[in-house]
Design brief:
The structure is a homodimer.
Chain A (H helix, E strand, L loop, with lengths): L3 E5 L12 H11 L9 E5 H7 L3 E3 L7 H10 L3 H9 L1 E8 L2 E6 L4 E3 L13 E3 L5 H13 L6 E10 L2 E12 L5 E2 L15 E2 L1 H13 L7 E5 L25
Parallel strand pairs in A: 2-8
Antiparallel strand pairs in A: 1-12, 2-12, 3-7, 4-5, 5-6, 8-9, 10-11
Helix pairs in contact in A: 1-5, 3-4
């Protein structure tokens, strides 16, 4: 593969409910002298999608169940947040003290169902993950196509992982390409089958984009340019969500 | 942060036991017109370090324990590989059918202790992970410094993860920088503390480098250029290995 360049899209306005993200990203990229080009992979932080799709909840409006109240008070977590985590989840994977790891409705396993109180417009509000991140990415891809740009779109979020400290950005939505590059059946120069059979390119792209977006800077979108990717409108993140039958850690 | 460029180092020779990796990488980068520069992060695949450090084992020389023989035969795994996995491990984390996930002596949790039969010079041989990946990275960093280059060095390997299909490249060794970027105590524009407290930059860099190295192509080293990183000779991967006390998945 050839070299890549990765850069953040500067100059995005504060995203509000109803903001046309594709239009805002397209305009900002042009105005700051780094226009998008066909073949780019656009990586957007889930936060701005959640804001644009009005996934904002006022905590005072949340009906808190007795369990959420008890658990929240016991571990000094906002009971309204605990309630939202349960509402956004299919299943609790681990609940150890204040650590609350669930499987979201999408099938992602993360702390607090990916709910974010930071950058959500101040205290007393929470940002939920988009309802259907793949569909959100597809809408942005389609809208950019209407502007003449054939761009793959990946939505990223920042997740922890077992066994290793600190978090990384990974993909939670995709459009225009498959999230996985498969090496199954391919052999190395010695005719030996690869130990590595499939790489989650989408997660590697999301992490790479974080290196330029940062979590502090106000750069919620980045471009990965120079990657060879196969157009595929059937790509979704569902293909990398492991069945619990195949998962030895659930 | 400014933009990044990421490119593979072409033209590396086949690495043999005793190969001076820093010299080989320095020469190949110069000869192929992409010389290293101070400020770069050099990402090297563990495989070539294992080869250079002669971590090659002839399977016929392995003394196989009765357990390894029985388990290997039961699940159609080479008993010599099973034995090597046990020898390279502190602890078995999960053993479910043919899935054999252990904690290596370094503290990494992965399948088969990171032992690789592919690209190890053909059948009947296995490649073990380097004994001390941080030290291997430090030697390469020092050797490049002697050539006037102040380059951070990250060793990558390809690991699976719970809950998600496919693998990603992550860091298993580092020199010259800390693997984690901390946001602890920092607040967002609304004065709200960040949900994200620390990012494992080293893992994101390793994954980004995989996008240009690929697993099939013979490009075992890549450069990430344009990243702002703080020189720190005390950085090791040990700081991201989570204590089992803090780990709810062990």
């Amino acid at each position: 593969m050839a070299g890549l360049s990765i850069f953040g899209i500067q100059g995005l306005p504060e995203i509000e409910p109803g903001t046309d993200l594709a239009a805002a990203i397209y305009a900002a990229a042009n105005e700051t002298g780094t226009p998008l080009a066909s073949g780019d992979v656009l990586v957007i932080t889930s936060k701005i999608v959640s804001k644009a799709e009005n996934r904002i909840v006022m905590l005072e409006d949340v009906q808190v169940s007795p369990f959420a109240r008890q658990y929240g008070e016991r571990w000094e977590k906002d009971p309204a947040i605990v309630e939202l985590v349960l509402q956004e989840s299919k299943r609790v994977v681990r609940q150890v003290g204040p650590i609350f790891i669930t499987e979201t409705r999408h099938g992602f396993i993360c702390a607090n169902a990916g709910i974010d109180q930071s950058s959500s417009g101040g205290h007393g509000r929470a940002l939920l993950l988009p309802v259907d991140p793949d569909a959100s990415c597809a809408r942005i891809r389609t809208s950019l196509k209407e502007r003449g740009l054939d761009v793959a779109v990946i939505m990223s979020d920042t997740f922890g992982r077992p066994w290793r400290e600190a978090q990384t950005d990974i993909a939670i939505g995709i459009a225009g390409m498959q999230p996985v590059t498969s090496y199954i059946g391919q052999v190395d120069p010695h005719g030996h089958e690869f130990r590595v059979q499939a790489l989650c390119t989408a997660d590697e792209i999301a992490g790479a984009a974080e290196l330029v977006k940062g979590n502090l800077s106000r750069v919620p979108a980045a471009v990965v340019r120079g990657l060879t990717w196969e157009r595929d409108e059937t790509g979704t993140m569902q293909s990398i969500i492991r069945d619990s039958e195949r998962d030895v850690f659930r």
